[in-house]
Amino acid sequence: MEHKKNIILFAGLFFFLSGLVPIARAQIPQWEKCGSFIEPASEELLDPEPRGPVNVEADRVESEKDGVSVFSGDVKFRRRGQWLDADEVFYDKPNDTVEAFGDVRYQDATMDVISDSAKVNLETDIGEAENARYFLRDYHARGEAGEVERESSIKTELREATFTTCDIGNHAWQLKADRVSLDHEEGVGWARGARLKLWDTTVFYVPFLRFPIDDRRKSGFLVPSAGRSSNSGIDASTPYYWNIAPNLDATLTPRYLSQRGPMMEGEVRYLNPSNFGRIRGSFLPHDAKRDDYRGAFSYRHSGSPRPRWFTNLDLNLVSDDRYFEDFGNSLSIASTTVLNNSLDIGYQGNGWNALGRFQGFQTIDRSIPASARPYQRLPQFLVDGFFPDQLLGLDVDFHGEVVRFGRDAGPPTGALRLDFWPTVSLPFRTPGTFFTPSIGVRDTRYFLEHAPAGTDSTLSRTLPIFSMDTGAIFERSLTLWGNDVRQTLEPRAYYLYVPFENQEALPVFDSAPLDFYFSRLFQPNRFTGADRLNDANQLTLAVTTRLLQSNTGAELLRASIGQIQFFRDRKVTMPGFAEETDSSSLVIGEVAARLAQAWSLRGELRFDPHTEQTALGAAELHYRGNEGGLFNINYRFRRDFLEQVDVSGRYPIADNWNVVGRWYQSITDGRLLEMLGGVEYDSCCWAIRLVGRSYITNIEGDRNNSILVQLELKGLGNVGQNVERLLERSVLGYSEQF
């Protein structure tokens, strides 16, 4: 039976029930793997914006003109995006009230609410419900409330309310409060008599708790953390979040390290329509272990003040050269040698861009002498452009730079350098081949400040650069292990000619030899920067083959090998290096393969044919199973420099239980760079991680040993240190299972 005239009756009841659970909705992140407690009975329920006609069905209807209308016997209210079921519904027209009894159930796109009864005044929009249970469909959260009172969309009062993300029947954790008051206009709630229960045992009680109930940020204390390490002793901190404005906030973190003393850390973030940034700082007034103050400062800003214009600011300072060793939490941070400080102002044109930069550095590696520290760029101007398909089909490429270098130690202590590098090329392409001849000129000029006695203060270098790049792609279809695949064969040849010019008199400000990797086979200069331009008369020969899945195009295998043939000795070198006289380069090979659905392999090999020895080797084997298993083994070798093996993984030992670990070893000197091992339990409801860790913090080989514990109540917060972030950094591919 359809009663469209009663739409307002059920719309009012819908509105009341939909406001029962804002506290839970604000607390839960989305967990796609966890599913939901109650699956939707119809796809129509998943419409986030209820709309369309309203249908009402009931076994019996008793209606009085000026009295009470009664709907009874399996009452069903249906509207796209909203459903309401009840055993009996009373509509009191004189008092404009609606009452629903007997297994009242409300459903929409986000939640299910079940209660014994519900009552709402349609005129004042004040209502109440008893013995309500709610389930958040997308967030794997649920709760109960013995009594609910709602005053329109302004306030909601809940008594004996609970909240958890655990499955029904699982009591791992539950948040319970005697009374909860929700202010929907301000977006805040107050809980009185709040208790955190673990397995039905109260472990935390707070008489009064203020919390957010929507996406609006609120000031207040965050979850504290604590841990212990051999470097600093007990480490405890309690962050305070300050919501200054909608586009501005700050986090202040008092921190105490038992072997060093009290420390203050802070972070300020801002987000404006045309810029955003972050300021971080830390200050330890007196470090008991060093008998001195310690501190660090970082400021990063990015903006676009006008269309096509952009700015970037990156400032980094530390009080001393051992700051990262003592307060960093990883080997990579502890090994930081130079901090960048720069300001960039740029413009992005159509096919070209310009950049102005001021850049300095703080060297914190005490082993680097003053004469080897980087020069400051005060300032630097860069212009780059690429204009394809110009006159006669030519591609035009341009690079220009004007920069002033400065440094306290020399010689030289400073100079102005101008570098201009225009190039034109004429590409010829067919569906399976390409041929691109190019010619360019690189002109570099120096105006030295305080040049050494007997040397010119004005220096220059002008050289032509000629190259030809050609290649082809051949394909064939074949069947491997019952799968249809396509194999490609992609030979490539690259010829480069640059005449020799003696460059020993030119200073070195920002040039260094490039590492030799596969793409370096096709670059016109083997040095970074503009201070050195290699002489070249050489031919690169390389070939790549791929295996592609015929139906999807997915790459199953890619293997490449190449070598440079030199037709003359290379006389241009860095200071202190001898001329290169070999007739050919290292043979370099790369491979990447997906061995199976869960296995992948990457490798690189550099072989010296003149000494018949391997110069460099690297291999990475990765496994990622469907049940959360991970395995990584990385091997790195560079002759006369390093040999390392890095093994990490996660192994499931029971439902939701895993062991995790990492072993990072230097084979060359027998040093253990990092060792990590632990156990974790991870479910949709809660997680606990216990990890022991030891790693080297400096070049002297000092170690930091620590034990870290993290208890995570999903949807509520964390207690302890952020072990999850450490594991993501140490174990390749690690992420939460849920």
From TrEMBL:
Gene Ontology biological process terms, A to Z = Gram-negative-bacterium-type cell outer membrane assembly; lipopolysaccharide transport
What do the Gene Ontology cellular component annotations say? cell outer membrane; transporter complex
- Its domain of life? Bacteria
Where does the record place the Organic solvent tolerance-like N-terminal domain?
56-187
Q: Which UniProt keywords apply?
A: Cell outer membrane, Membrane, Signal
Primary residence: membrane
Is Transferase found in the keyword set? no
Q: Where in the cell?
A: Cell outer membrane
Pfam families according to UniProt? LptD, LptD_2, LptD_N
Residue ranges occupied by any LptD C-terminal domain in the UniProt entry: 294-657
Instruction: Outline what the protein does.
Output: Together with LptE, is involved in the assembly of lipopolysaccharide (LPS) at the surface of the outer membrane.
The name on file for this protein is LPS-assembly protein LptD
